[in-house]
Design brief:
- The chain is of the alpha/beta class.
- It has 3 domains: 25-333, 3-Layer(aba) Sandwich (Aminopeptidase), CATH 3.40.630; 335-414, Immunoglobulin-like (Sandwich), CATH 2.60.40; 428-505, Immunoglobulin-like, CATH 2.60.40.3080.
- Helices cover 24% and strands 29% of the residues.
- It has helices at 6-22, 44-47, 56-69, 118-133, 138-146, 157-160, 202-214, 243-260, 276-279, 286-293, 314-330, and strands at residues 74-81, 87-93, 104-110, 147-152, 216-223, 226-231, 273-275, 297-304, 335-342, 352-355, 365-366, 373-376, 381-388, 395-402, 407-409, 412-414, 428-437, 439-445, 450-458, 463-471, 476-479, 486-493, 498-505.
- Helix 4 (118-133) packs across helix 11 (314-330).
- The longest helix is centred in the middle third of the chain and has 18 residues, at 243-260.
- It is globular.
- The chain starts with 5 loop residues before the first helix and ends with a strand.
């Protein structure tokens, strides 16, 4: 039997290339690029050159060394531990690192996929650059003085050091030790899931709690497998309310990197940036979790075509990304910011800041209960803001002007109602009749008066309709006229709290 003709081989090769082009890179096999023990640092001194990959023990020493060398602006903390007991180490870098200041919290994290390791070294080097540059470099000093910066270079050390000897990344794997993809393990709105750590992997639970506790304003998680800035959403085709802002900051990152190396991030339809859904559907990502549930902002930075990037290329990738990494952090200093306080006492309030005719339930932000400070990152324009809190009259601020690369400071004082109504517990609602024919009723329970957003989604995440109503008690009626027979998810939210229930519709 004769072998395949040249023509047949070409057609086969073309078919393979077409398949790869249509398949998410992270769904393909780990690329064999000759990564071996020579890519690992022999000692701490070599690890600190940032030209080799540290062993886990060297990594611990480096993180401890940063805190010891710069005690006034750096503290070593932990997000928690892994299944195998390794630490999810994080550096806090700030001019007042022992205080919880009224400043925005920023987070960089890397390698939640354990075999995507370029960010492991890039973030260690970024930490060194911030610490050594403080007081000498004006831009770095401004970042450290005005932000609370968190850096977590290794978010899945069990996967990265999966051979269990802590000495080499050669056998690094994508998943955690339980074989779970951590970037598919977060709660997902499209699955109708609550913001609940129950049943999540330990690494996921720890990251969820850390994000909540620190109230991270802006973050990015670093991956490998291609070179692109990926912005929300990953799990639905609809656009984020701040899609123009996301495109703006993603464009800035990519353009700055491509100015250093025009071949970097090359080949994407939008020149180095992509909407997650437009690339491929992914449900349960950390990026979507932060944006959906926490009021934070996060992108995914894919910074290396190769998963196990050879150490000889680390210097090149640092040179390409250094400027972009700093620029991205600077975005946390812009937008609308200020404090929400009680008019009479000037005490801080945890209030909802809603941009009218712009925000969805997933994009509103809240002021801190501790300091009353809030941060609304948004694209240049003129906006109308509404600040609201339980027991207080709403305050509407017109013509709030925002300019790119500048901060608009706006403090708001809210006036309390004459007789405050205690906030009740067990925010919930019920639907009846269910199954519904022609119409159904939504009866909120223990929901503070104010603006409610009710939205109906298909099980695959498509929004069927959305309605925002001023709620002052009573029952809200809906028609099923625009709904086919089937099962839907009904979401009720006052911005701060939300609940999701299933609804069955039977249309004759």
């Amino acid at each position: 039997m004769h072998g395949p003709t040249t023509c047949t081989l070409r057609l086969l090769l073309l078919a393979i290339l077409c398949y790869l082009a249509a398949t998410p890179l992270e769904a393909q096999w780990t690329k064999a690029v000759g990564f071996d023990e020579n890519d690992m640092a022999l000692d701490l001194a070599e690890a600190l050159s940032f030209q080799k990959y540290p062993t886990y023990y060297q990594y611990q020493e480096m993180m401890e060394g940063f805190a010891l060398a710069y005690p006034d602006i750096c503290r070593l903390d932990t997000i928690g531990s892994t299944v195998q007991g390794r630490y999810l180490l994080a550096l806090k870098i700030s001019d007042q690192m022992d205080e919880d200041e009224d400043e925005a919290d920023f987070l960089y994290t890397s390698s939640m996929h354990g075999n995507e390791i370029v960010g492991y070294v890039l973030l260690l080097r970024l930490a060194d650059t911030l610490l050594s540059g403080y007081g000498h470099d004006a831009e770095i000093t401004e970042l450290v003085d005005n932000l609370q910066i968190w850096i977590n270079p290794l978010a899945n050390p069990d996967g990265s050091f999966s051979n269990d000897n802590n000495l080499s990344l050669e056998l690094a794997q994508r998943h955690n030790i339980h074989g779970i993809d951590l970037n598919r393990n977060f709660p997902a709105i499209t699955r109708g899931e609550a913001d609940d750590t129950t049943g999540r992997e330990l690494e996921t639970r720890n990251m969820m709690l850390f994000h909540r506790d620190q109230e991270i304003v802006l973050s990015a998680n670093i991956h490998s497998g291609t070179e692109v800035v990926n912005y929300p959403w990953d799990d639905r085709s609809s656009l984020h309310a701040d899609d123009d802002w996301y495109r703006f900051i993603s464009r800035e990152y990519a353009d700055e990197a491509m100015a250093v190396d025009p071949d970097y991030m090359w080949g994407w339809p939008d020149d180095g940036i992509t909407n997650g859904w437009a690339w491929y559907e992914a449900i349960g990502t950390r990026q979507d979790y932060v944006n959906n549930y926490l009021g934070g902002r996060e992108v995914t930075l894919e910074l290396s075509d190769e998963y196990l990037l050879p150490s000889a290329e680390l210097e090149q990738h640092w040179n390409i990304n250094q400027r972009s990494l700093l620029n991205y952090m600077s975005q946390c200093l812009y937008g609308i910011r200020g404090k929400i306080t009680d008019l009479e006492s000037s005490n801080p309030l945890q209030a909802r800041i809603h941009v009218e005719n712009h925000d969805s339930a997933y994009s509103v932000v809240y002021s801190s209960a501790t300091h009353g400070d809030y941060y609304r990152l948004i694209k240049e324009g003129v906006y109308k803001l509404v600040a609201s809190a339980p027991g207080y009259y709403n305050d509407t601020i017109l013509n709030v002007e925002v300019t790119d690369y500048q901060a608009t400071f706006l403090d708001v004082q809210l006036k309390a109602w004459p007789n405050k109504v205690p906030e009740q517990e067990a925010f919930d609602f019920r639907i009846y009749p269910n199954p519904a024919v022609h119409t159904f009723m939504v009866e909120p329970a223990n929901i503070p008066y104010g603006e409610l957003e009710l939205s109906v989604h298909s099980l695959d995440g498509r929004m069927i309709f959305k309605k925002t109503v001023p709620y002052h008690g009573g029952i809200i009626e809906f028609s099923t006229k625009q709904m086919r027979s089937g099962i839907y998810l009904l979401r009720c939210s006052n911005g701060k709290l939300s609940r999701i229930q299933r609804l069955m519709v039977i249309n004759p």
